[in-house]
Amino acid sequence: MLEKLTNEQEEKIPFYLKKWLDIGLSTDEVDIDKCISIVNSHYKNLGLKQPKEFYIKDSPSEAIDFLVSKFGLNKKSVVNDFCYGSHDAFWLSYYDFFLNETNVEISKDILPLIELAKECGWWSPYEDVVVFQQRPCEINKEDGVVQCSNGPAIKYRDGFCVYIIDGIRLNEQIVMRPETLSLHQINSETDLDKRSIMIERFGWDRFIKESKAECIDKRHNLVENTKEALFKTEFAGNRLIVTCPTGRVFSLGVPSDVKTCESAQSWLGSEEEKINVIART
Fold first, then answer.
1. Of 9, 123, 157, 210, whose CB count within 10 A is highest?
2. pTM above 0.70, yes or no
């Protein structure tokens, strides 16, 4: 039983971290012959007959449409049947390390998942059919994470894109054309994190004006030389809008019982509530 890693084993952890990060972020084209060979070997080891048909699709969207239209499968079941290939890197790295660097006994059935993660994107195994997917052709990162504020975070070869900001999946309009958002769209969004991003990209000053938010207090903060206005909004709570001497505008959420700019600043500055501050330019 392994109770502690040796120094030599610990020194190899960064190697596996980089190895699997590179696998997860790979945009290389798939070698379908290698993938077929791995799957056939795995099916054989499990005592299953080898699949009769193999296909490769350019994106999850194309794979879903293909499986639904050609084989009459239910869309939800298709999605549930996906194996995530290279995007399983985050947990396969753990098993790869222990398989290669320790004597810990781990089921060898996981080996095909490790090998396929190195070779392809998502894939779907069935009794007679296996559908592989290409990896993305483009993966963009900002601040060290997969996201993009002015384009797709992930793009596939058929043009299918995934838009992500702050870990939240969004649609193309919010990222690429936020100025076309409507108040109805924003106010109808039930996901509070997504709604916040929509308002930020729409523009808090514009949102305040067009939603006819009620200004309940305003002042010139002589200490920080900022202009402040406290607004009551219908769907976004009370917001303190702060304009700096540089022209930068911040919108900060405060509780509904905060009625003045001064008390809003006091609440935002309290040690207890600092973690609740949300500020955007």
1. 123
2. yes
